[in-house]
Design a protein that fits this description.
This protein is of the alpha+beta class and 176 residues long. The chain has a single domain, classed as Glutamine Phosphoribosylpyrophosphate, subunit 1, domain 1, CATH 3.60.20. The chain contains 4 helices and 11 strands; from the N terminus they run ββββββααββββααβ. The strands form 3 sheets. The protein has a 5-stranded antiparallel beta sheet, with helices on one face. A hairpin with a 4-residue loop joins strand 7 and strand 8. Helix 1 crosses helix 2 and helix 3 packs across helix 4. The termini are far apart. The mean pLDDT is 92.
Length: 176
């Protein structure tokens, strides 16, 4: 279980996540890194769900980015089709956020591809708490995206027992 949130504001896009890995009701690890920067394609990913499943999806997404020469939309659509259409992959239990300079997407195994309307999106067990906090901070403050992500994750960690405040935050300059 985890919390991942992405905020796009001004000339920045930021994706952050906590470090908690839970097995049932037990915290197994508090320092996992669930947000990754894919430097070659200037893309950030974040995942929630089973770690092995999420790493499999990360590998598949990277392969799709290569195949589509860094075109994030085509890579996301191809991943969603492959994930939904393959009998083995269909059983993967994870959600994935991906963001580059232009776009942010949530991808699910049920074939969902969601681009946030307001530049704010979150996944994971604490995702709804982080999403609400990020939207409130975006609408009512002038804080930069990185600060909004950090504060939103801290709020989620204070509410959700499956999230912690050991944060990984990655930032890209975006096309405003």
């Amino acid at each position: 279980m985890t919390t991942i949130v992405s905020v796009r504001r001004g000339d920045k896009v930021v994706v952050g996540g906590d470090g908690q890995v839970s097995l049932g009701n037990t915290v197994m690890k508090g320092t996992a890194r669930k947000v990754r920067r894919l430097a070659k394609h200037d893309t950030i990913t974040g995942f929630a769900g089973s770690t092995a499943d999420a790493i499999t999806l990360l590998d598949l997404f990277e392969a799709q980015l290569e195949k589509h020469q860094g075109n994030i939309f085509n890579a996301v659509v191809s991943l969603a089709k492959e994930w939904r259409g393959d009998r083995v992959l269909r059983k993967l239990e994870a959600l994935m956020l991906v963001a580059n300079k232009e776009k942010t997407y949530l991808i699910s195994g049920s074939g969902d591809i969601i681009e946030p309307e307001d530049g704010v999106i979150a996944i994971g067990s604490g995702g709804n708490f982080a999403l609400a906090a990020a939207r409130a901070l975006t609408d009512n403050t002038e804080l930069p995206a990185k600060d909004i992500v950090e504060k939103s994750l801290q709020i989620a960690a204070g509410i959700c027992v499956f999230s912690n405040d050991n944060l990984t935050i990655e930032e890209l300059d975006s096309v405003a």
